[in-house]
């Protein structure tokens, strides 16, 4: 009981100042502290080209997103024929979805602050329309190349088994499908176009809602999780059909497939244009839908995320024309002015004065 009371006292900060400082030192002394930053480091970072940082960030982010995903696909396909233990011990569609989701989450957390965290050429194009693609493709290419090297022995064994069973190396069930999407037998291109368009639109809508600063249900810390789970939901729902979801992921990995399995990686059933290009119009459609019907710019302005193009005067003029701002609200009241004048000359609590007199004004006005 005495220990519980002590903890409660700590929570309420009801302890001597000296003891509190000692406890803080004890709690932090084992935490690795950053070294002081020297002028040499600051000068190096200042001279470092911004475009290089962003390109490396995008390539690294796509690598982190693609690598665990296609590694999980490799584990699933390479053990698809095993009975003891069953293939589900190694992987499943559920695990593949989680692998891509976690990869996206890690990519946004690690590389997002540097490059902006697009990791998808369709998102980059959409941002340009509403507001380094090569780097993104390069990141996917390196991830696929690394998986090919790490699983090389198993892939060679899979190739031998596929040839013996009469399965083409480039097909939905062949070794090339580890790296890129291929249609199954009997699937029409129109059907696959519709599936890909819907999946990519869904993901684009999730991404656009997450980067909307007026969205009260998503905080910056939860954005990687929400976007990752959006990808995972589409993998769980439609990976058993055929989906690509990302131009950079598919094209970069398809180049690796073409290196090892030839031009058929791009020519197989004329499907590659759907996997590579549909992502762009689908994401533009999703973002356009959000901008036209779901965007609330007034909320964005009220949260301080953006400003009116014509400044405060333009915003005041619009609110007046819309009937939101009355004429009596446009001129500051006498109480407002007296409070501001008082704050300029005295050291007083500005929040208490504003609330006590029923007036709201910001510190910036003083």
UniProtKB/TrEMBL annotation:
<dbReference type="InterPro" id="IPR050363">
    <property type="entry name" value="MIP/Aquaporin"/>
</dbReference>
<feature type="transmembrane region" description="Helical">
    <location>
        <begin position="133"/>
        <end position="152"/>
    </location>
</feature>
<feature type="transmembrane region" description="Helical">
    <location>
        <begin position="274"/>
        <end position="293"/>
    </location>
</feature>
<dbReference type="InterPro" id="IPR000425">
    <property type="entry name" value="MIP"/>
</dbReference>
<keyword id="KW-0812">Transmembrane</keyword>
<dbReference type="InterPro" id="IPR023271">
    <property type="entry name" value="Aquaporin-like"/>
</dbReference>
<feature type="transmembrane region" description="Helical">
    <location>
        <begin position="217"/>
        <end position="239"/>
    </location>
</feature>
<comment type="similarity">
    <text>Belongs to the MIP/aquaporin (TC 1.A.8) family.</text>
</comment>
<dbReference type="GO" id="GO:0005886">
    <property type="term" value="C:plasma membrane"/>
</dbReference>
<feature type="transmembrane region" description="Helical">
    <location>
        <begin position="189"/>
        <end position="211"/>
    </location>
</feature>
<keyword id="KW-1133">Transmembrane helix</keyword>
<protein>
    <submittedName>
        <fullName>Glycerol uptake facilitator</fullName>
    </submittedName>
</protein>
<dbReference type="InterPro" id="IPR022357">
    <property type="entry name" value="MIP_CS"/>
</dbReference>
<feature type="transmembrane region" description="Helical">
    <location>
        <begin position="56"/>
        <end position="80"/>
    </location>
</feature>
<feature type="transmembrane region" description="Helical">
    <location>
        <begin position="92"/>
        <end position="112"/>
    </location>
</feature>
<keyword id="KW-0813">Transport</keyword>
<dbReference type="GO" id="GO:0015254">
    <property type="term" value="F:glycerol channel activity"/>
</dbReference>
<keyword id="KW-0472">Membrane</keyword>
<dbReference type="Pfam" id="PF00230">
    <property type="entry name" value="MIP"/>
</dbReference>
<dbReference type="GO" id="GO:0015250">
    <property type="term" value="F:water channel activity"/>
</dbReference>
<feature type="transmembrane region" description="Helical">
    <location>
        <begin position="164"/>
        <end position="182"/>
    </location>
</feature>
């Amino acid at each position: 009981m005495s220990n519980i009371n002590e903890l409660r006292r700590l929570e309420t900060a009801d302890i001597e100042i000296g003891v509190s400082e000692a406890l803080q030192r004890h709690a932090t002394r084992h935490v690795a502290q950053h070294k002081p930053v020297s002028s040499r480091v600051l000068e190096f970072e200042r001279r470092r080209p911004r475009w290089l940082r962003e390109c490396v960030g995008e390539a690294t982010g796509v690598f982190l997103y693609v690598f665990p995903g296609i590694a999980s696909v490799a584990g699933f396909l390479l053990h698809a024929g095993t009975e003891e233990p069953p293939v589900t011990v190694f992987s499943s569609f559920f695990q593949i979805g989680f692998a891509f989701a976690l990869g996206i989450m890690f990519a946004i957390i690690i590389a997002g602050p540097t490059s902006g965290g697009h990791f998808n050429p369709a998102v980059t194009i959409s941002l340009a329309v509403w507001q380094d693609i090569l780097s993104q493709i390069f990141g996917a290419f390196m991830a696929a190349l690394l998986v090919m090297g790490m699983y090389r022995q198993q892939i060679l064994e899979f190739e031998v088994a596929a040839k013996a069973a009469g399965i083409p190396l480039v097909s939905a069930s062949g070794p090339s499908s580890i790296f890129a999407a291929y249609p199954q037998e009997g699937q029409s291109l129109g059907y696959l176009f519709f599936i890909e368009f819907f999946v990519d639109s869904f993901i684009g809508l999730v991404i656009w809602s997450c980067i909307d600063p007026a969205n009260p249900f998503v905080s910056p810390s939860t954005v990687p999780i929400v976007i990752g789970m959006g990808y995972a939901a589409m993998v769980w729902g439609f990976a058993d059909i055929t989906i690509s979801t990302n131009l950079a992921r598919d094209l970069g990995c398809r180049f690796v497939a073409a290196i090892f399995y030839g031009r058929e990686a791009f020519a197989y059933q004329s499907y590659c244009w759907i996997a590579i290009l549909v992502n762009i119009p689908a994401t533009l459609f999703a973002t356009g839908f959000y901008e036209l019907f779901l965007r609330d710019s007034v909320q964005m302005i009220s949260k301080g995320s953006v400003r009116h193009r014509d400044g405060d005067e333009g915003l005041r003029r619009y609110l007046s024309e819309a009937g939101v701002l009355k004429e009596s609200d446009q001129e500051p009241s006498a109480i407002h002015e007296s409070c501001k004048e008082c704050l300029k000359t005295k050291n007083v609590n500005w929040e208490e004065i504003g609330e006590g007199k029923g007036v709201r004004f910001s510190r910036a006005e003083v």
